[in-house]
Amino acid sequence: MRYFRLAASLLLVLGFHGTTAVLDAAPTGASVLKKGARVAVAGDSITEQKLYCRYIEDYLIACLPELELRVLQLGWSGERAPGFAARLENDLLPWRPDVVTTCYGMNDGSYRKYDKAIGEAYEKSMREIVARLKAAGATVVVGSPGAVDTFSFKNPNVSPRDYNENLAQLRDIAKSIAAAAGMPFANVHDAMVRAMEKAKPVLGEAYDVCGADGFHPQPNGHVVMAYAFLKGMGLDGNLGSITIDMKGQAAAEGGHRVVSSSAGKAEIESRRYPFCFYGDEKSPASTRSIVPFVPFNEELNRLTLVVKNFGGARAKVQWGGAVKSFSKEELERGVNLAAAFLDNPFSDAFRKVDELVAKKQGFETPMIKEVVTRFRTTRDLLGSDAEAEKALATLRGRLVAKDDALHATVRAAVVPVKHTISVEAE
Q: Which among 217, 232, 247 is the end of a domain?
């Protein structure tokens, strides 16, 4: 085992040498999200997988319900930045987005070694996209492309190392475009590279972070992507706190309230959910397996328990059906319940929200790709036609109304959760 870990670490060093820059995943400053904001998630087939964009919507709806945000995903398989630039006016702007995340570059790199022409074409279209969205009043969270897996990416034209170097060049271009436009940047590439560097020595070289095919991530990699974009939005990750006083009353804040309490025990009602993870702890097909290798819980998912006036050295904390042991010092500093209890009282409720978000985003893909985007062809065929424009506006309105209804169903599923926390000496 020791030899395997050393060998795996060496392979990672060789595979990633020269590809990773020290770039922050989050911008400086406050969150770009205001109450009632409309958030659009745009990208290629990785976006159309409806996983990282689903996790983003899960987080924005369930973890930040007080913001009353609205999310639309516009993933398009095989798309490059010029393709989105061509459909932006028709497909997205009528929706009046306030915040738009972009994730292009995987296809723009053309699956070969980097050359100047690749960078110039990508930069031209990305600058156009950002400028047009900015002119429309939207904040653009400019995302870098992701990465390819050092083990599962097999391409006769380019090695994983060389293609990650290509994608790193596009990452730097995206970062410079964001800086020039005064927009936040989401460093998806480095987040995925770092997750690979940490996960493979532990779970094996064949544990893919960037997908079984090397570039379409499984749920584990999409958690990393969601992390990068949520950080890019400037979120602070504080989801509230609960304080239990062993000699007095409990207190709660940040979307949580105390229903009843006694020494060492509190019943809480929570409007805010922590983000929940599921599945096999060793499988890339689960969200839970990547948790130790990405700082999602530490930076975005902090539901803190503080215990005061505890007299012993260690305590048992029961939350839902699980019991964990903590030292007095840990409890006084504060324990992140979301990180310590992956199975928790919110797990079932969060799963229901996620299922409804998946259904909603499943509607949005054909709505955009099969109907809305074809309005451009209709206009080309009919020319200037007021009656046709009226009909198209009516059809768009009906589609948006259906999507709004699906969104309302998602929001209605985020119901307050009652749960009990008890603390006692070991």
A: 232
Contact at 8 Å (CB) between 150 and 196?
yes
Give the span between the Cα atoms of 196 and 14, in whole angstroms: 13
Backbone angles phi, psi at 240, to 5 degrees: 115, 175
Instruction: Tell me how far apart the alpha carbons of residues 191 and 20 are, in angstroms, rounded to a whole number.
Output: 10
Q: CB atoms < 10 A from the CB of 167, how many?
A: 26
Q: Does the pTM exceed 0.90?
A: yes
Of 266, 269, 267, 238, which Cα lies nearest the Cα of 254? Answer: 238
Q: What single string gives the DSSP state of each residue in 308-372?
A: ES--SSEEEEEETTEEEEEEHHHHHH-EEHHHH-SS-TTHHHHHHHHHHHHHHHHHHHHIIIIIG
Distance CA(106)–CA(78), nearest Å, equals 9
Q: What is the DSSP string of 148-160?
A: --TTT---TT--H
* Per-residue pLDDT in tens (0 to 9) along the chain, 426 residues: 333 333 333 333 334 333 433 344 433 458 999 999 999 999 999 999 999 999 999 999 999 999 999 999 999 999 999 999 999 999 999 999 999 999 999 999 999 999 999 999 999 999 999 999 999 999 999 999 999 999 999 999 999 999 999 999 999 999 999 999 999 999 999 999 999 999 999 999 999 999 999 999 999 999 999 999 999 999 999 999 999 999 999 999 999 999 999 989 999 999 999 999 999 999 999 999 999 999 999 999 999 999 999 999 999 999 999 999 999 999 999 999 999 999 999 999 999 999 999 999 999 999 999 999 999 999 999 999 999 999 999 999 999 999 999 999 999 999 999 999 999 999
Structural domains in the chain (count): 2
Tokens found for residue 325? 């042991």
Dihedrals phi, psi of 140, to nearest 5 degrees: -105, 120
Q: Which of 230, 228, 132 is nearest to 181 (CA)?
A: 132
Q: Is residue 313 part of a domain?
A: yes
Q: Which residues of 354-366 are buried (b: 16+ CB within 10 A; e: fewer)?
A: bebbeebbeebbe
Q: How far is CA 57 from the centre of its chain?
A: 8
The C-alpha atoms of residue 141 and residue 349 are separated, in whole angstroms, by: 29
Domain end among 232, 262, 280: 232
Sheet holding 256-262, edge to edge: 256-262, 265-270, 417-425, 314-319, 322-327
Is 400 among the domain residues? no
